[in-house]
Automatic annotation (TrEMBL):
Pfam families: SnoaL_2 (PF12680). It comes from the Bacteria. Residues 172-268 form the SnoaL-like domain. It comes from Wenyingzhuangia heitensis. InterPro entries: NTF2-like_dom_sf, SnoaL-like. This is SnoaL-like aldol condensation-catalyzing enzyme.
Length: 290
């Protein structure tokens, strides 16, 4: 009888241990299923500027966070200091487009953050945490562009994932040929005839609209010239190009988002931000160090 009791006790102990392990496994599986994607983490972090939520800050590596917005101090402390400066209940954040390219997530967002702005943000991840941030911001214009488009409306559907690298090459070649090297004789080869949707606040739709605008500006002595391409990111039919150059003699950072359709450029959004003098920067990381 004693042996039977001992045997039953051992079986009970094993059963309990197995049940506990199963519970742990189930809990672990649930945690894995609910783990946020990189894109979700970025969107939540940006939204926390509006809501004041604390959890999204845990997505930032507290020991390694490099800030490239030259108006914000480096590290997690710099991000926290920025949030403290925002007047209560004043911030609004509406992320329209979110993309992923390897360790990078880039977004297209409508802000009311020290005034209405449109911005592109780029975040780099390492081991599931954000370790680096770049952005470009421009004041939101009061009215749509000549074709009735805003800086954020338009197509949002990500497709053609198998053509990501092909599309990145196409857009890189376009920016290099036309905006860096000024080879305007190649311009038409990148578009389907005159079809082209434009979201720049000052330029109308169609390729001819772009050409007319640049011609009018040139007659006024205002020229657009890209000097350097610093980063090209893409997902499917969308490609973001980060460049440095001059517009009307002003040293600018250019973030240009292109949508590609059937091997040609079909739509364009951009944000242009003047580069401030280095002696005003709150960090020394530079705006373009990737």
């Amino acid at each position: 009888m004693k042996k039977l009791f001992v045997g039953l006790s051992i079986i009970a102990a094993i059963t309990t241990a197995c049940n506990n392990q199963n519970k742990k496994n189930t809990q672990s599986q649930k945690e894995q299923k609910t783990e946020k994607t990189k894109e979700q983490k970025v969107v939540a972090l940006l939204k926390s500027i509006e809501t004041g939520a604390q959890e999204p800050t845990s997505y930032i590596n507290p020991n390694k966070y490099t800030q490239h917005n030259t108006g914000v101090a480096d590290g997690l402390a710099g991000f926290g200091a920025l949030l403290q400066q925002v007047p209560k209940n004043s911030a609004k954040v509406n992320t329209i487009r979110t993309f992923k390219d390897g360790d990078y997530v880039f977004t297209h967002t409508e802000y009311n953050f020290f005034g209405p702005k449109i911005g592109f943000d780029i975040f780099k991840f390492e081991e599931g945490q954000i370790v680096e941030h770049w952005d470009n911001l421009q004041e939101t214009p009061a009215t749509p562009n000549p074709s009735g488009h805003t800086m954020i409306d338009g197509n949002t559907q990500i497709k053609d994932l198998n053509k990501t690298e092909e599309n990145k090459t196409l857009v890189t070649n376009f920016v290099t040929d036309i905006l860096v090297n000024g080879k305007m004789e190649r311009l038409a080869s990148y578009f389907h005839g005159d079809d082209y949707i434009q979201h720049n606040p000052n330029i109308p739709d169609q390729l001819s609209g772009l050409g007319t605008t640049l011609s009018v500006l040139a007659k006024k002595g205002i020229f657009l010239k890209f000097d350097t391409i610093h980063k090209v990111l893409g997902q499917g039919n969308f490609v973001l190009v980060v460049s440095e150059g001059h517009f009307g003699g002003i040293h600018n950072s250019f973030y240009d988002l292109f949508r590609v359709e059937n091997g040609k450029i079909a739509e364009h959004w951009d944000v242009i931000e003047p580069i401030t003098p280095k002696d005003t920067w709150k960090n020394n990381n530079g705006k373009f160090n990737f």
